Amino acid sequence: MASRQQQPQSWTQDVDCSICLDVFTDPVSLECGHNFCRSCITGCWGQGQRNLCPECRQEFPGRKLTVNRNLASLAEKARKLNLNPGEGGSKLHCEEHQEELKLFCETDKKLICLICRDSREHNSHNFMPIKEAAEIYKDQLTSALASLSEKKLIFLETEMKQRGKISEVQEQSSSLQTHITSEFSKMHQIITEEEQRLLRDLRREEARILDTMEKNLQQIQENLYSIEEELSKLQKQMEQRDRVKFLKEVARLKRRTGEDYCELLLAEDRLSVGRFKGPVQYTAWRELIGAIEPAPANVTLDPCTANPWLILSEDRTSVRDGDLWQPLPATSERFDTWPCVLGSEGFISGRHYWEVDVGIKTWWGLGVARESAERQGRMDATPEAGYWMMWLAPERGYVARTCPVDTLLTLSANPRRVGVFLDYEGGQVSFYNAGNMSHLHTFSHHFTEVIFPIFSPGLTDDGKNSAPLTICEVKGH
Known about the structure:
Layout: H1 2-12, E1 27-29, E2 35-37, H2 38-45, E3 66-67, H3 69-81, E4 103-105, E5 110-112, H4 114-117, E6 127-129, H5 130-238, H6 243-257, H7 273-276, H8 280-289, E7 310-312, E8 318-321, E9 341-342, E10 351-357, E11 364-370, E12 387-393, E13 397-400, E14 407-408, E15 417-423, E16 428-433, E17 438-444, E18 451-456, E19 469-471
C-alpha cells in the first residue's frame, strides 16, 4: 500500500513550484528550462531586481516568460486527484505508530499522533490541533513576510543609493583623470617649447659661427694659393744664371714678399657652452613656474586685522605672538581675542596656492576665512562659522576644525612647510606637506563671498612656540 502511495507522490512533486512549494498556478518556463508560477517568479524578481533563475542562478537580459501548457495540465490533474498534502487530501501518518497525525506539539515543533501525545517523550508538552497551529504559524509567517518585504524595500533603496555613489565616484575619477592629463599636457607643452627654443638658438649660433669660419677658411686658402705661386717663382729665380736679370728680379720679389700675408687670424669663435650646457633644467623650471596655474601667490599680511598681541614683520610676511598688548584701534575688522591675522588680498574667483614655513612650532593655524566671518570674541573656527582651517595644537596634534567635533589628522611626517590651495569655483580648500606635496586634508564648500588667507602663530607656550609663522617667498619669478 505504501508503494502505491509513493508512486503518485513522485509525479506530483514534479508539479510543485520550488518558490511557493505548492502546485503550479499559471506555470511559465524560463530560457534555462526551469518552471515557476508566474506570480512567484515575477514577485521574486520584483522591481529593480536582477533577472536570475532561483534554481540555477542564470541571468537573463530580458524577462521572457513562456507559458507551459503541459505543466499547467498536469498541475490541474494533481489538484483533481487531491494528492497534494498542501491541499489536505492525503493523510499523513506517524512513522513510529502508523497513526494519523492530528496534533502539533508546540514544545518540539513537530506533528504527532494521539499515541505520541500520551507517550513519555511528550509528557507535559503543549499541543494544539493541526488546523489551529497552521493558522497561528501562517499569521506569524505573514507578519515575517511583511517585515521582510519592508526590509527588502529598504535594501533596494540602499542598493540604488550605493549604485549612485559608485557612479558618482566613477564620474569624479574620470573628471580628475581628465584634469590631471590636461595639467601635465600644459607642462609638457611648456617644456617642449623651451627645448625647441634652445635647439633653435643652438642651430642659429652654429650656423653663424660656421659661416664666419668658412669665409675665413676661404680667405686663408686664397692667400695660401698666392704664396705657393710666389714660392714657385722664387724657385725659378734661384735657377736664373744671368746676374743682371737675377738682381732685377730680386729687387722686384723683395717688394712683393714684403706684403703682409699674416694679417689673417684663425677664427676661433666657439659655441656658447655656458648657455647650452649650463643649468638647462633650472632654466626650464624658471620658464615652467612662470607659466603654471595657480602660480604661487605672493601673500602679505593685513595689519588692520591683526590681534593686538601679534607682531608683524616690516615686509608683512611673518607674524609671531608678542609679549605686550599693543594699543591698536579697535575695529570690527580686527581679531580682538584669537591670535589671528588675515591676508591683505581676498579672492573671489580662480585657483590660488601659497606656502607657510611652520618650522618646529608647537602651535599654529592656517587656512582661509570668508569676509563676513565673526572676528570678535571667542571664535568657533569651523566651516559653519566661515573658517576652513588646519591646526597644530599642544597635546592635541594636527586637527581640521570641523563640526560637531574636530577631525584628527594622522600624518606620516611633521611638515616644516605647509601649502594651502584654494579653488574658488571648485569649492575646495586643501592642505599639503610642501616638503613632498603629500595631501593632508581637504574641505569642500560652495563659496559665495570674498575669501581671505588666515594665519595664527598660536600662543608662545612658555617660550616653546615663540618662532614666527613665515609666508614663503615665491621663487622663480
